[in-house]
Amino acid sequence: MYSYYCISDHGLREAVFGGNTRDRTLILKKGKEMKFLHLSDLHIGKTVNGFSMIEEQRSAFDQVMLCISSEKPDAVVIAGDIYDRAIPSVEAVRLFDEFLTDLAETNVAVMIISGNHDSPERLNFARRLLEENRLFIYSVFNGKLGRLSLSDDYGTVNFWLFPFIKPVSVRNLYAEHEIDSYDEAVRVAIETANIDFSSRNVLISHQFYTKAGMAALRSESELVPVGGLDSVPVEYIEGFDYVALGHLHCSQTVGAERIRYCGSPVKYSFSEWRHDKSITVVEINEKGSLSVEFFPLYPIHDMREIKGKIDVLMSGEVSGLEDTEDYLRVILTDEEEIIDPIGKLRSVYPNIMYLDFENSRTSIDISGISTDIESVEVLSDYELFCEFFLEVQGSTMSDEQEAIVRDLLETEVDV
């Protein structure tokens, strides 16, 4: 059975027909053009270098609700990676529940697919109940793309829901095809959907689509298979009027403005610290007419990098320039040794995530430093350390340093 939903000025009414919910559910609405928000890669529950991102995510979701209030879209699409882990924390589940509850109180259709970080079965929980509140989740792929259709003054827009798939997980669904790669799995799934491309069609997908000659902007927080084995040619999806992609955390297009990764709503690694996060707002008019705008997202604490000598960075002249509670990567350039640098810095900048050093010592390449086997066998631990210190520092140890090293080497350690 499937449900045919009709949203009108008189509210919601339902008629039941035979068929498959996932590719027959229809939502009708009154309006001049179709507008929807494109989100992805929420990664609810993620921690970055030991810092929980829950409050940053809650703030981002609050801003999504503000965007819905101001833009008045007909739909919200979330293109996968709802959670950061297949088994999310209790805190993460609670936050997603809050977000879904807020979305259900609006008059928008919400379409959600699973990503490579999600457990499709767990995300699928209570799917039928959620559909009664216009929250449509298609996470367990059954061999067919899900379809949800919305209509406006220009006709029907078909939203095709395509959760993340792996070749091994769909091979048995296409017995007549040889599925040995992500490339083949996606190609077959789209070809067998029998899509009428003379109509307006939107694809929601969470795969790694690439175009020959174009390098994708990837971040450290993404899972990157060796050799890019998960890549899929963008040519398979070029027939769609808009492609709402998830998977990459930096907002970017793939060969055309209408094929877009919206990026994550929160910065999840320092490779993203220069990225501007936003909600992608898409408006579709008649066939071939489309516009894309961006609703900016602002973090509670930004992620940024500062560099210099410790005394300068801790001075009011520098620390007063921006929020000291931002998530920071600090690069110290002091030549002299510093006792407890992280402790000192955190007295001013409490949310330091990384501490690096950049000076004459760190610039020396020690990969070529070696001691022949015979020397290792005859030299004492102290003599070996002296040689190593000379190679790295370019000078011998002071009397005080020698005394410290001898004392440490002579101290017996109980294991």
In short:
The chain has helices at 21-24, 54-71, 90-104, 120-123, 127-131, 167-170, 182-191, 310-314, 316-319, 341-346, 373-378, 381-393, 399-410; strands at 2-8, 11-17, 26-28, 34-39, 47-48, 51-52, 75-79, 109-113, 135-138, 146-152, 155-162, 200-205, 208-210, 231-233, 242-245, 252-253, 259-261, 278-284, 290-296, 303-308, 327-332, 352-357. The protein has 415 residues and is an alpha/beta fold.
Task: Show the helix and strand layout.
Blueprint: E1 2-8, E2 11-17, H1 21-24, E3 26-28, E4 34-39, E5 47-48, E6 51-52, H2 54-71, E7 75-79, H3 90-104, E8 109-113, H4 120-123, H5 127-131, E9 135-138, E10 146-152, E11 155-162, H6 167-170, H7 182-191, E12 200-205, E13 208-210, E14 231-233, E15 242-245, E16 252-253, E17 259-261, E18 278-284, E19 290-296, E20 303-308, H8 310-314, H9 316-319, E21 327-332, H10 341-346, E22 352-357, H11 373-378, H12 381-393, H13 399-410
Parallel strand pairs: 1-3, 3-10, 4-7, 7-8, 8-9, 11-12, 12-15, 13-14, 15-17, 20-21, 21-22
Antiparallel strand pairs: 1-2, 4-18, 5-6, 10-11, 16-17, 18-19
